[in-house]
């Protein structure tokens, strides 16, 4: 059934790049989540300017009193405690180490974008020696660090000046001295330390704000090699390094090449590999072994939270993450580094490329993006040669047996069993896809099962919202009929395996008017939306923001808000699928449940009152829901966790969705699953989406 493996065994380790969370009060949780994402390494920034604000008397001595190592000791310890090998990136020169004796040919118009000016390579090497000694495994009980990167994006004026003088590139020659002297210092502490060079920005540019030398041009000058498919030596200068870093951001999908021939996107990685190999053969790279190619930074931003139409939609983003890792692996990249763990605040900051949606100041409020699952367990499948080529990497990056399965009916049918190598990599060709469903369809409860479960617990009002016409929504529990305002009736509802119907709202004027309602002790209902702004499932809030709101909030979370206190979910609920939301308050504590599980809770006294209530409209924010609502019930007592769970299960859903992020649409999907365990990749469609233009950095 399977051909031989598609390629020779080689690793693809993953890392997460520097994130402010690694140095904050929740650093332990940030490292824990990084490791849980399948990463084995983490890129940490060691700012020379911060550690050495004052010039040390003895720059190679890590105990020199001028050095302020501060919290970096803690970052290194925490990383290693979470089984993450740090890649320490030495960046940013202190003012005393800059050479400002000569005028700059280019000065950025914004001082905030001005990088260090001609850092002293000797002083940098002394600092590198001090740092690698401090974290050499025999200094003051501090642990060993093996991986050291010398500078971030040295081809970009935001990190190094000068870059260009007219058309002449200045930065490659400056960086060669910085890299060589630092590499020698780092290797003098431990010869098996790994020194990473490059980490180049992907695009050439020249504006009033920034200059950048194209990465392939920078490499050719640094390595003294010619242009072309078979590069040749142009001088005899050498560079000392063990790995070369690239930042191959793209303006499209995972196979897109850069528009300019000397820029580097994902599709250009083979050109980088050819140049490195040619330089190594020419003896221009001094290395302790074969030169590795690493991606030391890469990502796409997602929509949401970024609302720009040229940002990658969040579900397509998940597919692209798997495909990007595959493209890196097949281009001989052995380390792939994602930027970053969590989104920056939106819209004040630019990077919305995290593996987690930002839920507020605390990491505990963050919600995982689909990309997290794709990064942890990448899997791709492409039609080829009368069958399907598959590739993936197990979530632990270790040897295992893997089942490749095809969606069939309500289940998954086994297609093939593969063995992942010692790096967790598996690949093969499947000659034929399944043609029959897997077993019997799982029986689903009838619609009456859900409604009996709700009515059994005595709601004061229950609107099933299953009318096909008219303007009145019946109250199945009481006498409080509701009124449809411009809504579309009869759309498919939330209850599985039934003819259940729901109401669709247009986000402009539609709502379901309930009339005056006193603050309920429980609000329960179903909502389906992809909105990125705060909108209500239920609200009886007045213009002064008093009373009760249950709905969603930007960018992706559920929100219960009651008398000045809000509970924001960690779960993502604006993904275009049905979600079951329940808010309860017992007079002392509030609880927010999402899809049958307690998600958030807090303690506060609330002010109860009566005000006009609606489904899909909030009078405080004056916002309308664009999406659908179904099966809304109100209670004069707080439902228990068991009651919430039983109602959710009566809908025909389990407490964990098989397709967690609603990735699957029409057509054939494959997934990979570890034999003997629950770990599985996201479903991967055999229908290839068209490439599209996106902003490389989401800005």
Give a topology summary.
Layout: E1 13-16, H1 27-36, E2 41-47, H2 48-51, H3 72-81, E3 85-91, H4 121-134, E4 136-139, E5 142-144, E6 147-150, E7 164-165, E8 168-169, H5 171-189, E9 194-200, E10 205-206, E11 211-212, H6 215-223, E12 239-240, E13 243-246, H7 269-281, E14 285-286, E15 292-298, E16 302-303, E17 312-313, H8 314-330, E18 333-338, E19 356-357, E20 367-368, H9 370-376, E21 379-384, E22 387-393, E23 400-408, E24 411-420, E25 425-430, H10 447-456, E26 461-463, E27 472-473, E28 482-485, E29 488-492, E30 501-506, E31 511-518, E32 522-529, E33 535-539, E34 548-553, E35 557-562, E36 565-572, E37 579-585, E38 589-594, E39 597-603, E40 610-615, E41 617-618, E42 623-624, E43 626-635, H11 641-650, E44 669-674, E45 684-685
Parallel strand pairs: 1-2, 1-18, 2-3, 3-6, 6-9, 9-13, 12-14, 13-15, 15-18, 16-17
Antiparallel strand pairs: 4-5, 7-8, 10-11, 19-20, 21-22, 22-25, 23-24, 23-44, 26-43, 27-28, 28-31, 29-30, 30-43, 31-40, 32-37, 32-43, 33-34, 33-40, 34-35, 35-36, 37-38, 38-39, 41-42, 44-45
Index terms:
699 residues, alpha+beta, eight-stranded parallel barrel, eight-stranded antiparallel sheet, 45 strands, 18% helix, disordered N terminus
């Amino acid at each position: 059934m399977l051909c031989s493996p598609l390629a020779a065994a080689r690793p693809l380790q993953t890392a997460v790049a520097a994130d402010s969370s690694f140095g904050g009060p929740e650093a332990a949780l940030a490292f824990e989540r990084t490791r849980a994402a399948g990463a084995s390494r983490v890129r940490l920034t060691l700012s020379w300017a911060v550690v050495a604000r004052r010039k040390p008397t003895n720059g190679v001595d890590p105990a020199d009193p001028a050095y302020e190592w501060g919290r970096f000791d803690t970052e290194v310890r925490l990383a290693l405690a979470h089984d993450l090998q740090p890649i320490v990136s030495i960046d940013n020169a202190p003012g005393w180490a800059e050479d400002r004796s000569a005028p700059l040919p280019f000065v950025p118009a914004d001082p905030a974008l001005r990088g260090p000016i001609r850092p002293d390579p000797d002083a940098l090497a002394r600092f590198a020696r001090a740092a690698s000694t401090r974290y050499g495994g025999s200094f003051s009980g501090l642990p060993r660090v093996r991986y050291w990167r010398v500078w971030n994006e040295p081809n970009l004026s935001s990190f190094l000046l000068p870059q260009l003088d007219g058309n002449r590139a200045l930065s490659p020659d400056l960086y060669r001295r910085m890299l060589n002297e630092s590499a020698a210092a780092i290797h003098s502490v431990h010869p098996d330390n790994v020194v990473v060079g490059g980490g180049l920005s992907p695009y050439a540019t020249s504006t009033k704000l920034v200059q950048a030398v194209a990465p392939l041009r920078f490499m050719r000058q640094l390595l003294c090699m010619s242009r072309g498919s078979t590069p040749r030596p142009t001088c005899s200068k050498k560079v000392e390094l063990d790995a070369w870093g690239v930042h191959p951001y793209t303006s499209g999908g995972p196979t897109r090449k850069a528009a300019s021939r000397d820029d580097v996107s994902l599709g250009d990685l083979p050109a980088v590999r050819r140049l490195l190999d040619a330089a190594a053969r020419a003896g221009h790279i001094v290395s302790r072994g074969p030169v590795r190619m690493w991606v030391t930074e890469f990502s796409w931003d997602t929509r949401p939270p970024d609302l720009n139409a040229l940002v990658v939609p969040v579900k397509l983003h998940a597919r692209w993450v798997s495909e990007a890792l595959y493209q890196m692996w097949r281009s001989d990249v052995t380390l792939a580094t994602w930027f970053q763990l969590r989104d920056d605040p939106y819209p004040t900051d630019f990077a919305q490329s995290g593996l987690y949606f930002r839920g507020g100041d605390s990491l505990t409020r963050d919600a995982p993006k689909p990309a997290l699952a794709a990064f942890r367990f990448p899997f791709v499948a492409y039609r080829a040669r009368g069958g399907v080529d598959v590739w993936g990497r197990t979530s632990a990056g270790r040897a295992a047996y893997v089942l490749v399965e095809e969606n069939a009916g309500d289940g998954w049918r086994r297609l093939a069993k593969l063995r992942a190598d010692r790096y967790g990599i598996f690949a093969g060709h499947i000659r034929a896809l399944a043609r029959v469903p897997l077993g019997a369809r799982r029986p689903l409860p009838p619609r009456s099962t859900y409604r009996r479960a709700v009515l059994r617990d005595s709601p004061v009002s229950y609107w099933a919202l299953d009318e096909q016409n008219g303007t009145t929504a019946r109250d199945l529990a009481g006498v409080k009929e509701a009124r449809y305002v411009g809504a579309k009736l009869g759309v498919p509802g939330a209850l599985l395996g039934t003819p259940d119907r729901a109401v669709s709202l247009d986000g402009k004027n539609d709502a379901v008017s309930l009339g005056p309602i006193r603050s309920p002790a429980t609000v329960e209902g179903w909502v389906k939306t992809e909105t990125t702004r705060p909108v209500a499932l239920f609200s009886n809030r007045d213009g002064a923001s008093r009373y009760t709101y249950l709905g969603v909030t930007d960018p992706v979370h559920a929100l219960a808000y009651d008398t000045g206190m809000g509970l924001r979910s960690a779960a993502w609920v604006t993904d275009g699928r049905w979600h079951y939301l329940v808010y309860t308050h017992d007079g002392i504590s509030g609880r927010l449940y999402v899809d049958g599980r307690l998600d958030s809770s807090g303690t506060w006294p609330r002010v109860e009152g009566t005000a006009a209530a609606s489904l899909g409209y909030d009078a405080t924010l004056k916002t309308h829901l664009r999406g659908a609502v179904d099966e809304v019930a109100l209670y004069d007592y707080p439902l228990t966790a068991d009651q919430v769970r039983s109602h959710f299960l009566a809908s025909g859903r389990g407490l964990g969705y098989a397709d967690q992020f609603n990735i699957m649409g029409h057509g054939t999907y494959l997934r990979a699953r570890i034999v003997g365990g629950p770990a599985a990749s996201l479903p991967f469609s055999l229908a290839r989406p068209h490439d599209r233009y996106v902003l490389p950095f989401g800005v």
